[in-house]
Every structure is written in C-alpha cells, then in structure tokens.
Amino acid sequence: MLLTTKYVDGLPLHRFETVLSRHGIEIPRQTLARWVIQCSEHFQPLLNLMRDRLFESPFIHCDETRVQVLKEPDRDPTSQSWMWVQASGPPDRKVESPRVS
C-alpha cells in the first residue's frame, strides 16, 4: 500500500503520515521514507532487467523532469534535482497510459 499510495496515487509521505494518523496508526514519515528506500533495494534486480530490455530497443523515449529533494546530503534544498523517465517499444506500437481500475 505504501508504494502504491506514493507512486500511483502521487501522495507525498507527509500526507500519507496524516492519513494513517487519522486512522490511529502512528508511523513517522522518516520510517515511511526508510521503507520506500528498503523496497527500492529489493526491486533493483528487476530494474536491472528492465533497463537491459530497454537498451535492446532501437528507440528510447525519455522525459526529464525537475523535482525538489529535501534533506539530501551535501546539497541545498533549493538546488535542482532531476528525474529521468525512459520507455521503449516497437516504433509502430501506440503509446498507452497505464489504467488503474
């Protein structure tokens, strides 16, 4: 639920912390952030396979978006950070957005 709430629903951790608190569940956002990081470590092998598959494609579509990262070691919170999104597929295949039911 944590990863779905953060990445599919786009809910920041501080707001998810408030939602949980409203239901009597007290989990600090620092703990939630640590869990997100720990999950990412478990997903790394899958991400590596996905990147390998991506680079097999003759075309790669990319998007570069600026994001704000707070409390990043040795960086000012107002400094620019970037998120890069990449996708590939056959050139004749229509691009579709994922559907959430």
TrEMBL record:
It comes from the Bacteria. InterPro entries: Transposase-related (IPR052344), Transposase_IS66_central (IPR004291). Residues 71-101 are annotated as: Disordered. Residues 91-101 have a biased composition (Basic and acidic residues). This is Transposase IS66. Residues 2-90 form the Transposase IS66 central domain. Pfam families: DDE_Tnp_IS66 (PF03050).
